[in-house]
Amino acid sequence: MISPDDEVFGTALNRFCVQAVAGEPITPYGRGGPLYADKYISRLHQTTDGRVRFFGPIYGDRYRVLRSHAAAYVQATEVGGTHPALVEAMGFGNAIVANDVPEHRETLGDAGRYYRGSEALTHELQAVLDDPGEARELGRLAHERAAAIYGWDAIAQSYETWLTALMRR
Fold first, then answer.
1. If phi over 0 gives left and psi between -120 and 50 gives alpha, with beta otherwise, what is residue 111?
2. What is the pLDDT of residues 97-137, one digit of tens each?
3. Is 70 exposed, middle or buried (0-12, 13-18, 19+ CB in 10 A)?
C-alpha cells in the first residue's frame, strides 16, 4: 500500500531504482491513502525504471500469489500499532525490511531488518536481495514468530489464560 506516511518509501524507491543492481522487479501494490495523496502517488508513478511495476489494488488469489512469491516486503508505515499487513507478511514467510519504529520492533522482533530513512532502506533492501540465504532465514524466522504470537492457537491460549484469571477473582 502506498500512502502519505510512506514518503520515505517513495524517496527510497527512487534512490533504489537508481542504485540497485539486483535486477529484481519492485512491485508497490495497492493504492492507499486519502484523495490528497494523488499528487504523491503520481510522483511515484513517474519512475522510468522498468523493474517498477504498479499493479494497483490486488485482491484474492492474485494478492496471495504476489505476497507468497515476494523476494522481500517493506513495511514503511510510521504509525498505527501492530500493522496487519506486517503480520500477514510474516505469515507468508517474507523477508521483511521494516521502518524502525517501536510498533514494528515489537511485532517483528529479530525476524527482520530495520531502517531509519531512505538511504538506510535502500541499503537494507539491497542487502536482503543480495543474500537469498539470509532472505530465506529471515522469512523462516518471521513465519515462526507470526505463528507463535499471532496464530489462532496462540491467541486462543492467551484468551483462555486471561479468562481463567478473571474467573479466579
1. alpha
2. 999 999 999 999 999 999 998 889 889 988 999 999 999 99
3. buried
